[in-house]
Amino acid sequence: MKGISKRISISFISIIGLLLLAGYICLAELSGMSYEAKGILATENSCSRTTRDILRLVSIHSDITVQVSVMKDYSKFNMLDSLKEQMVKRLDEGRKIMSNAHYDSIRLNIEHLNTLSKEYVKKHMLADSLSHLQGAHIGHGQSNRASIEKRYEWYSLTYNNLQHRLEKLIYDFYEDVNKTLHRDVSELRNNAYRSVLPVFITIMVMIVLILLLHFFIVRLLVTPIKKMNVALKNYMRFSMPFLVKIDRVDEVAELADNIKRVSEEMTSYKKGKGQ
Amino acid sequence: MRAGVILRYVGSVMLYVAAFMGLCTIVSFLNGIDDAFYLMLLSTILTFALGSFPLLFVEKVDSISNKEGFVIVSVSWLVASVVGMFPYLLWGGELSPIDAWFESVSGFTATGASILEDIEALPKGLLFWRTSSCWIGGIGVVMFAIVILPSMGGNRMALSNNEISSLAKDNLRYRAQMIVRILLCVYLSLTILTALLLHLCGMSLFDAVNHAMSACATCGFSTRNLSIGAYNSPLIEFIMMLAMLLSSIHLGVIYATITLKSNNIFRSEVCRTYLITILAFILVITLSLYVGEYYPSSLECLRKASFQVISIISTSGFSTADTNQWPSLAVIILIFCTLMCGCAGSTSGGMKVDRIIVFIKELRYRIICQQHPTAVFRMRLDGYTQDESQMHTVLVFISTYLFTILVASIIGAACGLDLQTAFSSSAACIGNVGPGFGQVGVATTYNTMPVIIKFLNTLLMLMGRLEIFGFIQFLFTKWWR
Known about the structure:
The complex is a heterodimer. By secondary structure, chain A is an all-alpha fold. Chain A has six helices and no strands. Chain A starts with a helix and ends with a helix. Chain B has a domain at 1-163. In chain B, strands 1-2 form a two-stranded antiparallel sheet. Mean pLDDT of chain B is 86; it is low at 148-152. At the A-B interface, α1 and α5 of A face α1, α2 and α3 of B.
């Protein structure tokens, strides 16, 4: 490589190139981290909404079941199926963040809960219609109270147990997803330095290159100029020959050669004049 | 000493390292742009930038002094180890900066000690870089630079003098240029042949190439967590044993054997001693394993004993069995193998068989001198007369070697390690063997070592690779004047 200016230009271009590379890496790593963080937040939101919605629907199903089975408000019987459909729909929407085991078990329990309510209500609807047709009036008040107590017992023991099991499954799903997210967040936090490390290493290499550049500039420019300075001073004061020799082919070597030629011509001119 | 000249040649070596990093980038690319692609690409760019900078500013010189040659070799090892850290640092994972330094130094010094608990979790590009670093280190970073870079011209002599030990040069009656070419040809041929044979025996191409490179460098880096034991194949083990054995013999002697010259394996006193020692150790360990009923059959005992003895004595460090569970006799023999190691002029580290032979002959000479004070003896090794200064150097080397192990063991014990771990890890690192015993056995890694011990072990690895004196000289300021 000949010419100091060319070498220094290439060096500066490489250093700037490395700086741009460091910047690009920084941006790429940060956008990667941001994408990962967004994913974690989206999953957390989806999980919370799914859990909240299904639990709300389960609660409504429970209220309707009380009204239909205990209070004998059979007009709301069809709402049971529509609530079940809504729960299943909501569950399907949250399928992406759910494991197969969670999905299957929650779905199964929703179906079971709905079937249990419907079958119980159907059985009592039939019984009520039959007794109405037979015209049973004697001891109507006492048997009504006993029937309500019996139905409420069914609701608080059988239905509630299943309802609580379903709610537990939903909470288990919520906790599992959160555990996974906590792990992902910890990993993201622990690996945060990885986004900085490539930039850091690139900058360290850049610093080394800058130090090398400084070393070589001093070696190629400053030191020869100092030598030439001293030699010129000696020439001017003591008429010593200019003996700086630079074994390179570049601007500084050319300068040294030119100064040497000028000094030799000056010397020969002085000698001629002296004669 | 001209700093610019030193930087130029170190830069050349960096370019060579960058070329291998580029190769690893290609491996990553061919593997479907795996996780190692961008980090290998960045490491290549950075190493290339560091290597090419001095070449921009420093002109080629006609000659370099011996001191400059020495500094070039030593600084090349250090700088190669530093840039070798880049891929590990960028990968992160379980690798802290000291772990990355440890893994890099272990590769370039062809030690093969690792801190990685799950090697198979690494992407292929990074695995290939691990193996490449030890392959480069096996023949010496500078050797390649000497042969490949024509601009070095007449400076090859000064550089090769500092890279090849004097004992190695004795067996080669060629000029330095020829020596370097021969060593490199044998090294390359052995690697290619081993890779082909391993692939034919059922290893995947990637694994075959990696294991061949590691075996010929007598390093021990495997692509599997269980090392060669993962394959459970006698044929693969046999090929690996052959490769490790040949790599631990003077490469010039192998060349002479192939080209039917007189100074071949069978006529070389050093090789004969080495092979007979290996045979004796295998027999003793086989017997101890058989008597202790460690394996179901005598053949199995022989198979395990052979592999482990050859692996340790060649300073490779591959494993097919957990030697920590072996009887004490076997363990002590393997520790001796860790100290003795291969022949000079090979890729193995350690004290070298040549020095042990010189030591024994010197001991015999001293005993005879006690009886016949005026007797005059000439010590010969493989037909070459060893003068007083060479014998003296060997004795000082052995003493310094053992003293260094002792000091390192004391420091290890002071840091809380048990005696077996402290001693075996020091001996394994300075001998560039890799696995030791105790907490650093073949079935474990150096991951659990304290940070200061990891750093100390890296210094020991560098000392072993630079044949101790090369490293110690750096510590003397008078030498720099």
